[in-house]
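Section 3.1: Structural characterization of target chains.
Under the original work plan, the team committed to producing a structural model for every single-chain target entering the pipeline before any wet-lab resources were allocated. The record below documents one such target. The sequence was received from the expression subgroup and is listed exactly as submitted; it comprises 402 residues.
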Amino acid sequence: MVRRRSTRLTGLGLALALLLTPGSATADQDDHGRTADSRRDPALQALAEQVVADPNPNPGAFLLARHDSDDRFGAAGVADRSAGTPMAPDLRFRSGSITKTFTATVVLQLVAERRLRLDDTVQSLLPDQVRAGNALSGAPVTVRQLLNHTSGLYDYLDGLLPYFRRLDQYWPRDQLIGVGLAQPRYFPAPGTRFRYSNTNYLLLDLIVERITDRDLRTNLERRVFAPLGLRDTSYPLAHSTIDGAHVHGYADVSALLPDAPDGTRFDVTAFSPSEAGASGALVTTASDIARFYRALLRGRLLPADLLRRMLTDTVPTTGSAPPAVAYGLGVYVYATDCGRAYGHGGQALGYLTFALNSRDGRDQLVAHTNWNSFGDTGIDKDFWAAFQEGYCAVPTGPTPRR
């Protein structure tokens, strides 16, 4: 799940989390044989504690910092307020729109297999979605424009609020697409400018299913999760709880459900990921996110020409926070004090995550906090400053970032 309208997010807590190899570490020792305390970096720990506490206390947070095979972390607060469970870097959580890079990777793999072209139109691929008066009855929209958010199609999340009845209700994909296509486009000429819309990625989901005769979950498992050994990553559309040890998410949902308990720390962990689908339904860990981006950026998932296109076939972003300068084919390009970074951010109700990576995947940061209101993607400037500081603290070695 991604962008929302309403209250601006403030006081978002972070911390730096450690990369663990799933299934190979105990609670006290990782796969490199170092104790957890030896991986805890004092500066990153201080940063984590600061952003969790100020200006509004957040339940908990963690960040992961990785350079080559060296990883360090700082963690603060709690993963579960009721149980008092400390926040830890190896817990599962909802990653929100980081899912989009996974979805885009599957789409580009189909392009590499010549089963799809970036200039194919949605109207030709999904003719049954074109109806008189709906948004696809206008100018043609291409696969490329879905990937880079220049389609102009209305974001179904902006119109979903009246349909909410409970947090764990299941949302059929066709219903969500219908909400997006029933509204006029944000602008009539596709490809002319950037406007983030989750409807784009639900249509990509449907395209993948039509071409492969398999659902997106199966494609992700066969093409990404299994080859990379992402054993803690899943795409649980019909499962509103999180399996295994996980982070609890907290949010103020008074704007979402009128009968919800009043307060700013309501546990929203049991939330249906079907509401986000291909745009943001993944449940994963910091380790798996970092492993995915490193493999992607080092050419393990896409041919060199398509990876280059994914990162450089970009459009300028407007109104983005933190300061993304461009959006490629499922990837943000961020401006930081130490150079450009590639990755994505993700909001799910109760969760906020960001992943930044150097172009070669050598330097990485994954940051997560378990507080997120039903609001927009306005990220507090102090949050971004802390997040950027954490990324730029990752050692770069003799080669500067590009």
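The first strand starts at residue 60 and ends at 67.
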